[in-house]
Amino acid sequence: MATILIPTPLRRYTNNLSKVTLQGEIISEVIDNLVTTYPDLQRHLMDSSGAVRPFVNIFVDKDDIRNLHAQNTSVSGTSVISIVPAIAGGNLNH
Length: 94
Fold this sequence. Notes:
CATH topology: Ubiquitin-like (UB roll)
Strand order of the largest sheet: 2-1-5-3-4
Shape: globular
Number of helices: 2
Oligomer: single chain
């Protein structure tokens, strides 16, 4: 089972858990299992077509899945999956 690290802003949707372990051989299966277990996460992670939202970065171990096989990236029982939502805000023109 892969370990998924839950970022602080999303923990309110996982009963305040900082990490969960779930089954799946590829990222899409793990994410599907994550949103099945914690349905309130779905709108924060996935768009209406079921794809990971463009502003959500997912890493398997230390590799961005966009540089691998996207949602078809393989995971193993020892994989650590990090979900990193982009942070927006601030004004660079002071």
